[in-house]
Design a protein that fits this description.
Blueprint lengths: L4 H26 L10 E2 L17 E2 L5 E8 L2 E3 L3 E4 L3 E8 L4 E5 L5 E4 L3 E8 L4 E6 L12 E7 L4
Parallel strand pairs: 3-6, 5-11
Antiparallel strand pairs: 1-9, 2-3, 3-4, 6-9, 7-8, 7-10, 10-11
The structure holds dinuclear copper ion.
Length: 159
């Protein structure tokens, strides 16, 4: 069978690319470049109901006049709901899941992380604009995934 030179070149290039992609996966897995979120804090998802932070999660004072907000995600809700935080102060979210992987997206902001069973995902954001924001689960988690919605109320600080 006769194959044109250009076609051969493209075939080899495509094969080479696949090789590069596979090598990237193997190397990053082998060198442990793929890691769970943030600071790799683990938690037993089966005992969240007894966990002092996540059994009945509630905001608490944090550094810099901000708040620390533990959030438990589960099919198909976020707790607490609504989450109330001050505007213009650092808000440190600590997310975990009681069952499967969920997402935590504060719509209209860049606050977005995954809630993973077995891990605590932590990140800090500041919301400058007071208002009520929708929190959406943006990882498919089951039949009622589309109904997994929470609310974040950013309150103007009373001087
Ligand atoms: Cu939780 Cu989708």
């Amino acid at each position: 069978m006769h194959v044109e030179l250009y076609e051969k070149i493209w075939m080899w290039a495509a094969t080479g690319l696949i090789g590069v992609f596979l090598a990237t996966i193997v190397l990053s897995a082998g060198l442990q470049a793929m890691q769970p979120p943030s600071h790799i804090e683990t938690i037993d998802p089966t005992t969240l109901a007894q966990n002092p932070e996540f059994a009945d999660p509630a905001p608490r004072p944090g550094p810099g006049g901000g708040v620390i907000v533990p959030v438990r995600a589960e099919m198909f809700s976020f707790t607490p709901d609504p989450i109330v935080v001050p505007a213009g102060r650092p808000v440190t979210f600590r997310l975990t899941s009681a069952d499967v992987i969920h997402g935590f997206l504060v719509v209209g902001t860049n606050a977005n992380a995954m809630a993973l069973p077995g891990y605590v995902s932590q990140f800090t954001v500041t919301f400058p604009t007071p208002g009520t924001y929708t929190v959406a689960c943006d990882e498919y988690c089951g039949l009622m995934h589309h109904n997994m919605v929470g609310h974040l109320i950013v309150k103007e600080e009373t001087p």
